[in-house]
Amino acid sequence: MRQYITDNLEASAEMARAVLASTELRDALERAALACVAALRGGNKILLAGNGGSAADCQHIAGELVGRFAFNRPALPAVALTTDSSILTAIGNDYGYERLFARQVEALGRAGDVFMAYSTSGSSPNILAALEQARLSGLLRIGLTGERPGCMDGYCDFLLRSPSVATPRIQEGHLLMGHILCGLMERALFSPEGA
Predict the structure, then answer these.
(1) Which of 4, 105, 116, 126 sits at a 20 to 30 Å CA gap from 58?
(2) Domain total for the chain?
């Protein structure tokens, strides 16, 4: 048991060090944050979607934005498209699971909004369909995935890849990057220094 604990802590720390070491990933995080800040300053909102553990990540990040992250400030408009059971079951029943998020992006997304799409595999059909709908609706698209070969590359304006192929490490990377994005947005919008 102790070895399992040690192995997982070391793997998690290695993933975080890999994020730190990647200039490309750090640059993408900064550019994505600046795009989110511009959208929010323009009166737009952030929509988030993912399946399973990624759905929980969406809810977590939306909660940080609407509530607070590091300090008290005005609420930021963010909606996790993973939470309304009536909408989810109606769309799933009437249009199929693949349209689960695309239909919501069509209903709620407006040009200039941001769509944050989570998929550890990079190939979830309902996420790809939502990214395509986001493109058609004029939303900025940020994808969070891992290092597995996936299909998200051509669908996203910014692609944030957790440096791992293991689902738990990918999800840990997504949480780390999500927190960094929240902190950057909060500081840029509400810190006296603006950074």
Answers:
(1) 4
(2) 1
